[in-house]
Amino acid sequence: MKGDWIGMTEFRDTENTDMHHRARTLIEALPYIQRFHGKIMVIKYGGSAMVDECLRTKIMQDIALLKYVGILPVIVHGGGPAINTMLKRLGVQSTFHQGLRITDETSMEITEMILAGKVNKELVRLLSLQGVRAVGITGMDGRLFTARKQEVEGVDLGLVGDIVDVDTDIVESLFENGFIPVIAPVSTDLEGTTYNINADDAAVAVASALGAEKLIYLTDVPGVMRSLMDPDSLISRLHTDEAERLMEEGIISSGMVPKIRCAVSAVKHNTASAHIINGTLNHSLLLEIFTADGVGTLISK
After folding, report:
1. What distances in angstroms separate CA 265 from CA 14, 203, 227, one per listed residue?
2. 29 by DSSP, 3-state: which?
3. CA distances from 263 to 173, 260, 300 (A)
4. List of E strands, the chain
5. pLDDT for 113-161, tens place per residue?
């Protein structure tokens, strides 16, 4: 009998400890919820974080929670893996130049179909399952983006575009009516030619035009590290000038360079901070926003 009582006491102590830990987590989040209430956060979602269905659902849960606590999330998504799969299925060969897909008319048609159709509407569906209202749009809707052909010396990238103008009326209208905008990076120029836009660049354009509180890149790495082989070398905070210096020194290199350039550009153009986090880590979005230490790299002025 005595042993049963001791066992029950230990169970209750463990249960109480767990409950207290949960309560502390909520209390720690409170000042961030207060601080960011009504603020715009642009989330660039793509790559490895989009591949696993269970992970996609968890990310949409995080974004739904942001909406429920009064934050205004905007999703700008890519869809490279889904595009590659469809191109391969249809027997269309892909050619790349420095990581950029050379896009002919056939590839553009498939890209638009996958980004604006399959991927965009899947994200809207997942958000709806979390009880929030979302609307999927492209850069063409409401003339959100005006594009022009991207010029790269020595190579013709085809129907790859740069954003030259952003009109946020449609996004602000969606905010006013309680919707989460989900943006596919496809747009047209003034003559009506359709272009594929790099999703990282599109996210910068949206965040800068909206004066976002945060631009968050969901990647497949923890953030900026001094040594790629040492997870403990994660740099939690960087100023823009430090980030530029680390790129010059080669500490920030390879595929991280374009994202850091985008993050620095956003912060220099009307975005309060940019974040590089591991989107494959469960609930990394919430951990980065609502905890003191975060889980990735924050870049600010």
Report:
1. 48, 11, 24
2. helix
3. 26, 5, 9
4. 40-45, 72-77, 95-97, 100-102, 134-138, 145-149, 160-166, 180-184, 186-188, 194-197, 214-219, 237-239, 273-278, 297-300
5. 999 999 999 999 999 999 999 999 999 999 999 999 999 888 899 999 9
